[in-house]
UniProtKB/TrEMBL annotation:
Keyword terms: Cytoplasm, Methyltransferase, S-adenosyl-L-methionine, Transferase, tRNA processing
The protein, known as: tRNA (guanine-N(1)-)-methyltransferase
Assigned EC number: 2.1.1.228
Gene encoding the protein: trmD
Domain N-acetyltransferase: residue ranges: 259-400
Length: 403
């Protein structure tokens, strides 16, 4: 993914060479280029601002340097026939920048940022730019900063960390604050009992030491609700709707969905296997694997507030057209336990053509809650699957009553 940033303080963006963002740049996952707006001025003082028409305090950034700077960015496109960048202009008068916006921007192949200063950028620049690219004015919050650079640092980090391969533990991307509309649950580490500096003994909640993953998931969800109610009650109304498949936005996956599907897939399977390099003994799918799979499967995705939260893929069995294959049924970890998985399975079955007589799926043998869900839905084991530690299950389709 490519990022271009135009600023009068290019050194302000130096922190993007640090931590995971810097590593992503060095690994070639991110191409980030910073441009000095003053390089596009034509006077010896390198002037980028002037007084506002109509009077008033402060200075306004002139249109000429901005048009030339953005023209320069457009002229350096890696693919002349490809799409133009999405131009993001941080400003307190913009739409709120939130996690759903970060996920939306992470789907774009190219972002450009215009860092305003003083009282802002001449309005004509927005009009000029909108004829060449999509323009988004986004706000970090209801406060005013001296310039857009701080916002660009925050927005870039929020977007880049969503790209496949940037964050090592993909599961962390779907179990954190603002995912699913709720704040993150409390987290603890060793030791299980800690005596603080005041002599008070503080223990980790017993449920986290139980090894009962269903109880842990339920406790964490309860904690997310309580914490959100205490700190951000405004989020509860939106989050409460994510309990039924019908509340989600459904679509058939396209190649642009592949990176998100791959991340959600890894997050779901990380709960089930101890070896994160393998999916039940088979190689884990990359974003390219998912894209390739779209040619052989119909993959259906479901979103909440723009975030991909569930997916399943279906097809006729290439060797037996009467069999309907269901695969990669996934619900993000923080929304599990609400019945969405069962609804997703029923939805996958409903997609089968009328002449299908049997449903088929494959699951991990040593994951009891999955086996219980499928058996409760009427599936029965028919033998070991191709992958180590997996089982094939089938279910006869109920006959349609004749009229």
């Amino acid at each position: 993914m490519r990022f271009d940033v135009v600023s009068i303080f290019p050194d302000y963006l130096a922190p993007l060479d640090l931590s995971l963002i810097g590593k992503a740049r060095r690994d070639g996952l991110v191409d980030l280029r910073v441009h000095d707006l003053r390089d596009f001025t034509h006077d010896r003082h390198r002037t980028v601002d002037d007084t506002p028409y109509g009077g008033g305090a402060g200075m306004v950034m002139k249109p000429q340097p901005w048009s030339e700077a953005l023209d320069h960015v457009l002229g350096t496109a890696d693919d002349a026939s490809g799409p133009a960048p999405v131009l993001v202009v941080p400003g307190p008068g913009g739409q709120p920048f939130d996690q759903a916006t970060a996920r939306e921007l992470a789907q774009a192949p190219w972002l450009a940022f215009a860092c305003g200063r003083y009282e802002g950028i001449d309005e004509r620049v927005y009009e000029w730019a909108a004829q060449r690219m999509e323009v988004r004015v986004l706000s970090l919050g209801d406060y005013v900063l001296n310039g857009g650079e701080v916002a660009v640092l925050a927005m870039t980090e929020a977007v880049v960390r969503l790209l496949p391969g940037v964050v090592g533990n993909a599961e962390s991307l779907v179990e954190e604050s603002h995912e699913g509309g709720l704040l993150e649950y409390p987290i603890y580490t060793k030791p299980s009992v800690w005596e603080d500096g005041d002599g008070v003994v503080r223990a980790v909640p017993d449920v986290l030491l139980s090894g009962d993953h269903a109880r842990i998931a339920a406790w964490r969800h309860e904690q997310r609700l309580e914490r959100t109610a205490a700190r951000r009650p405004d989020l509860l109304a939106a989050a409460a709707t994510t309990g039924a498949l019908a509340d989600l936005d459904a679509s058939v996956a396209t190649p642009s969905d592949a990176p998100e599907i791959a991340v959600v897939q890894r997050a779901c399977w990380a709960q089930m296997v101890a070896v994160p390099q393998h999916w039940w003994g088979a190689p884990a799918e990359s974003a390219q694997d998912v894209r390739d799979g779209l040619a052989h499967w119909d993959t259906h995705v479901f979103r909440s507030e723009g975030r991909l939260v569930a997916s399943v893929r279906v097809r006729r069995d290439p060797a037996d057209p009467a069999v309907w294959q269901i695969g990669r049924l996934m619900v993000v970890p923080d929304l599990q336990g609400r019945g969405i998985g069962r609804q997703l399975l029923a939805h996958a079955e409903s997609l089968a053509p009328a002449d299908v007589t049997t449903y088929w799926l494959n699951t991990a043998t040593e994951v009891p809650h999955l086996m219980r869900m499928y058996k409760k839905a009427g599936y029965r084991p028919v033998g070991p699957g191709e992958g180590p530690g997996t089982t094939d299950l089938t279910k006869r389709r109920a006959a349609t009553p004749s009229r």
